[in-house]
Structures are given as structure tokens and as C-alpha cells.
Amino acid sequence: MDAESRAAPDVLAVDWRGHPCRRRHGGMRAAVFILGVQAFQIITLASVGSNLITYVFGELHFPLSQAANVVTNIVGTAFLISLLGGFLSDSYLGCFWTLLTFGVVELSGLVLLSIEANLSRFKSAPCNMLTMEGSCEQARGTKATIFFLALYLIALGNGCVMPNMTAYGADQFAGTGTAAESKRLSTYFNVSYFVYCVAEIVALTAVIWAQMHFGMGIGFGVSAATMAIALISLVSGAMLYRNKPPKGSIFTPIARVFVAALTKRNKQICPASSPNPFNPGASDAMPIDGTFRHANKFRFLDNACIGPVPSGPAAALEDTVKRPCTMFEVQQAKILLAVLPIFACTIITNTALAQLQTFSVQQGYAMDTRLVSSSSFHVPPASLQSIPYAILLLLVPAYEVLLVPLMRRVTGQRSGITPLQRIGVGLFIVSLSMVSAAIVERRRRHAAVDDGKMLSIMWLVPQFLVFGVSEMFTNVGLMEFFYKEASAGMQAFLTALFYSSFSFGFFLSSLLVTLVNRITAHGGGKGWLGDNNLNNDRLDLFYWTLAVLSGLNFFCYLFCARWYNSGGGGSDAEKEIPEGLRNVERA
Fold it and tell me: Measuring CA to CA, which residue among 12, 573, 579 is closest to residue 293?
């Protein structure tokens, strides 16, 4: 046995047999298999979700605004379920078994969707939804039931897989609590996003091309095959992974904190930054050294640690609510409350993303899809969503190799700029994407209605390009922020908050579409987005509305980020992570 294998085991993680991990476990060698899972999983999700509106509108004959809401509701549900996936992983199953179990669930939904799209008995009669020529009856009955059952199986499986891919990959580098670990984590999140971009490009070009040329049924079958490959990649690296054992329900101790704080609200506050004189053993779970930035926030929760520790034969019968909470439990509750405003400020960004996956695709169908005027090659409108990811293949490595070292010298931060600063840059840029979308749509509509001309589909490139730059800052920053801020046992759940932001963004999109149609419908009209023909709609005004909301959201974020950074441990200087706070590094 070599010296590396004889090194001290990692007591915070175990291998596939349940034994403490050693140095041969984890690292990039293990993360490669998880990156493989991520790549094929993203190909699966993107190839289904990005062109789904075409299938719902063109094949199932749903009206345009309703088809857009079907897509955003399904995608929103998948991202919302990510909270369930994070909870199950942290509390009961662990990342590996959560990924494997719900990966199989997602695969079953994809197989069912492929069967539904390929069987002739479930296919709708030909129909031109723009002119309503042909049999344009909306899909109902068994056809609709099977379709939605398949979609929600995919949503359930995908929702539980997504947060655990990111958390499980980061787990392969966590455990030392050193400055080098923080740098490796930051690099891993950039590599992970690079892989994400490559997978998106493959899905939005090759798979979308297959869907357009061979039919959606074949395209869905390809998606099922890529999901099967993802599961094979996951199992292949089983003997190399570092696995963090589940610690039981993460909500039970947090709920105890709120209940205890409520019942002891009239007692003298026990500061979370100092030991509890009534419960001296309460701080053992997490040493307190004054670096916890939220110590002076949510002070009402500090009362939860007050009270004597029950002892003797009757202790087991003591009501658990009356037991004093540990400092660690109080800090968990404070962290969860503190990150919520940051989480809320990212929702509107994903509302903008929902438009690029729905209405912007339909814009493409109303434009000249030839690559150049003399070309016979037509650009599939859904493939426009690959543009930001193609640009990001250049920007992400440039960010890691050029910008990070430069900013590291300027700011002194190990990651160049903090995750909160990175998120702020992205939130500002997303409003510019919606401004670009509004200007282009106004020009497209004017050319079509007044001049009878079709603009080139390449006019849509700027809005996708600008949004891609925004994603590089917002998404990577948010993933890193949630993982680093999570206390022990909460990594997968807080990572799931990142994905649930997509959920609320897509649900907000559905709500805005419905509200805008109702508010702008005058005298029995259809409203800005009420017609199947975009030439009769006012999508440009809807984009301007989102641009204004994005701008207001940015200023709200500045206030929330400033508040988050305030507190007892909120100095700008980078500090080495204490042993007990190794996963609560500053953002």
C-alpha cells in the first residue's frame, strides 16, 4: 500500500463501502464521471425543453400563449422539485443514490414521451396553426394524459437530479477547509459551467436538427439514449467518489430553532457569537470564533439556545422542544433566512430566460431563417439558444485564465471577485438583453406589418448573446455562493435553491403572460400576447416591461447584497476557514 493510501482517512466522507475516504478518493479523477453525468443530463433536458413549444404548438395544437405556459409550467415544476431532491439527498439518501434513483425515473418519462410521439394513434391531424387551416383540434383525452404524465415524470426525475449533480461534484473537492480548497471549488464551478455550455450547444444544434429533420419522436428517443448514458457514467465512477453520509432531516433542527425561539421569546437573549452559559455543551458542534457574519441578525433566534441541558434517567422523556438548541442549529436557521433575499433577486433573471425559450423561438419562425439571403441552409429557430453557450465556451476559460488572476491582484480575493459581486454584474446585464429583445421585435413587427418584409433571423442574435454573458456571471456566481454559504449537511439543499430560482422565474413568466393579456385586453380584445400570430401581438411592449422589472430588480439586489455582507463577521478580508466552519466560507 502506497503512502497516499495510508494517509489519514477523511472522517467527513465515506467511500462506496461506507469506509472513511482516503486521498485516492475524490478529486478531479472522480469529478470527471460526475461531469459526464452533467453533460448528458443537460443534453437531455435542453433538447426536450428548448423545442418543446414547437411540439406543443405545432403537433398538439395548443394556442401560442397556452403552449408557452405549458412549457414554462413544466420547466418550473422540474426546477421546483429540485428542493425535494436536495432535501432527500442531505437528509436520507445521499447524492449518489438520489442521482441513480431519480435518473431512472427521468429515463422512464423520456421513454414514454418518445413512444407517445412515435405511435401513429397518438399523432394529431395536420394543421397550420397560424392560418388555422386543417384539423386544429387541441390534444385531449388519452393523448394529452400520456403526454403530461411523461412530462411530469421527466420533471420529477430531472428536478431531483439537477441539484445533486452540482453538489456531488463539489463534494469531491471539499473536506480540507484550506485556501487551496476554495480556489479548487471556484475552478470546478467554472469547469462545470464550461461543460454545461458544451452540452447545451450539442443539444441545441445536433439534437434539435435531428428533431426538425426526422421528427420529434426520433428527437425524444435520442434524449432518452443520452439519459441512459448519463446513468452509465454515474455508476462507472462509484468506487472513486467521496460520499457525505446523510445526517437525517435538515428541517427538524431548523424547525426546533424557530419553535424554541418562539416559546422563549420573553427570555434574555443568548448571543450566537458567544457560548451559552445555560447550555455550555451547545457550542461544541460548531466552534464560534467571531467570523459568523450573521451573528447580529435575526437575534430573536438566539433565544433558542437558552435552557439547561436535561440529564439523568428522565432526560430521554424530556420534550425535545424544551431542549436548548445548539449554536450550530441556530446558525443553520440564520443562514437559511439570510440567503433568501439573494435568492429572490435572481428570479426575474429566469423570467427573462423563459422568454428566450418560448416567444423568442416563435419570433424566429416569423423571420427569414436562411443563414444568408442566398443560402439554402435554414437555421432552426430553437438552435438560436446555442448562441450564448458558443460565446461562453470562449468567455468562461478567458474569465478563469485572464480575469480571475487580474482581479485577484486588484481585490485580494482568491476567486478574483466574490460570488455576490459576480451575481450583481449578471443581474445588471440581463436587463440589457430584454432591451435588445424589445428593440429587435419592434423592428421585426414594423418590417412585417408595414413593409411586408421578413427580417433575417440573425437579428435575434444580440438578445441571446447578451443574456449568455449575464448567465456566466449570475449562474456560476449563484452556484458558488450557495455551496460556500451552506453549513455542513445543507450543501445539496442550498444548491437546490439555485435551481428553484429557475422554477419561480418560469412560474412568474406564466403569471406575467396571463396578467398582461388580461390587463391589456381592451373592449373584448386579446391583449398584447393573445394572438397566435406575433404580427398581431405586441411582444415588444412585453419585453420592455421585463426590461424595466429587471432594472428595478438590480437595484433591489444591491440593497440585499449590502445587507448580507453586513454583520460581525463581514469584513472584506479573506480569512482562513476554521475547522468547524469549513463550509461556511465568505461569499
Answer: 573
Element spanning 128, H or E: strand 127-128
Q: Are 155 and 102 in contact (CB under 8 A)?
A: no
User: In 484-522, which positions are buried (b, 16+ CB within 10 angstroms) versus exposed (e)?
Assistant: bbbbbbbbbbbbbbbbbbbbbbbbbbbebbeebbeebee
For the stretch 115-126, pLDDT in tens is: 888 876 666 666
Query: Which of the four pLDDT bands, split at 50, 70 and 90, describes residue 108?
Result: very high
- C-alpha cell at position 401: 485564465
Alpha helices in 486-523 (DSSP H): 491-520
Secondary-structure breakdown of the chain: helix, strand, coil percentages, each rounded to the nearest 5: 70, 5, 30
Is 207 within 8 Å of 221 (Cβ atoms)? no
> Is the pLDDT higher at 292 or at 261?
261
Burial (CB < 10 A; 0-12, 13-18, 19+), residue 299, is middle
Residue 229: count of CB within 10 angstroms of its CB: 16
Taking CA atoms, 420 is separated from 163, 309, 343, 477, 582, in Å, by: 20, 39, 11, 7, 19
Query: CA-based Rg of the chain, rounded to a whole angstrom?
Result: 25
- H or E stretch including 80? helix 64-88
Amino acid at 26: G
Q: How far from each other are the two terminal CA atoms of the chain, in whole angstroms?
A: 40
The Cβ-side half-sphere exposure at 61, using a 13 Å CA radius, reads 19
For the stretch 36-46, pLDDT in tens is: 999 999 998 88
